[in-house]
Amino acid sequence: MVLLRPPLLRLHREQLWQRLGKVASVAALVSAVLLLGAAGAGVSSFLSPEQQRQPPAILLDRHLDPTRVGRQALLQLERPEVSAPQLERSEADTLAFEDRWIARVDVEAFGAEVHALGQRLLRQEQEAGQAHLEHLQRIVRGSDCLAFLGLSTMWLAPNPLTVLALGFWAHTRFTMVGHHSLHGGHNRIDPTRRYHSSRFGSRSLQRRVQDWFDWFLPEAWGVEHDLHHFKLSEDDDPDVVENVARTWQGTTKKWVMTFLTLIIWKWGYIAPQTFKEMKVREFQKAGKPLPEGFNRRAPMTLLEAFRMEGRNVFSSWEMLSQVLLPYLILHFVVLPLPLVLVDPSLNMLWNAEWNLLFADMLSNFLLFACVATNHCGSDMYRFRRGCKPWSPTFYLRAVCASTNFQHGGEISNFLHGWTNHQIEHHCWPHLSMLSLSRGQQELKEICQRHGVPYVQEPVWVRLGKTIDIMLERAKMRWFPEAWEREADLIPER
Asked: Taking the CA atoms of the chain, what radius of gyration do you get in angstroms?
């Protein structure tokens, strides 16, 4: 049982150095703050002048669609559906001051412009696929370099360099490689089909390890994330941070849970929540009723998964054996185990364990800071009813319920995991990352012409606003239901 003995209880001649190294590793969080802050301040783009002059590109067909909109119907769309003029409403001064922009927006015209831009992006991406493929390959090489740096130095005493490399490796693999692959963003540009949405990380441990090895199942994340995109900021959206925070009662608990969320977000919430949504989908396909007392809208945390044993769509052992334990064992035990052969004293092994642990905390923090904050804050909207995909309202919600971080070139985009293009991504989920960059400025100009708020702030400002929501020091806005475009809404059951 030597391997299980806590390292701090063992005496070693370099014990002081080891402890200082662990303290320095905690400073990696601060280093990440400085890196992202510098990225947000602006870094020169690595895109060639020729690439920057090319118009953007986008894809509009999906392999998964929770609203069951036919793929062919989506491909045949040339512009958003045009419906009858909106009904007359009360005077604009009945709106809250911060909502008065709504009264001045021609939603149909706005949606038509955004959709037309998407069609142009689609054509351009099909014509210039090689540039998009080369861009993806640069992203993958950058992520692989971080992996090499982190894994080759993890035997050293805990240090910021190793922790940052390992943390950003997991972060970039999630936000850029896995995320956009499962959206179909690489389907048109990758002739090898390695990053095709139908194959990437698909339903085997081998492909999970090879393509996107993290705390959750890639296929489960795909199901859950589709709901997020097509139910954005509704109560059926599984990623509404405000709904998760409401389950925390008491000021002390809110502070504690807010802190824990920043460092255990992936295995404490994403893993069980995505697994739940995948199992619900399986129940629906099989025509089976959900267990009595099961509430699909309720957030599924790791603790809740154990509490609901017998009343859930999965057992706790099913989640542990299929989702959490494979990553825990392979990443934290098998991966550093060969160091025992090099150093039988286990010093290198324990160094690696600490580096992996700190890096995991960092990757959780980076993911929460760059992803959970994209749709959270007192200036972000929520909605009571669903809307039809690709309708004018769909595009309006993609903008007013999302926020971008600061841009500053490819290094900035890389450090943010391309989440600084979240508005563009929600308008056109199938964009390649290069297309997101190319289309950003034109979409921003469309929003300015139509008076639609295009929120863009540094990631740390958005993190502060998100924490305010979590602590209930602020609330998100509800979009005035009377001002919704009825033709775009899904009829209530």
From this structure: 23
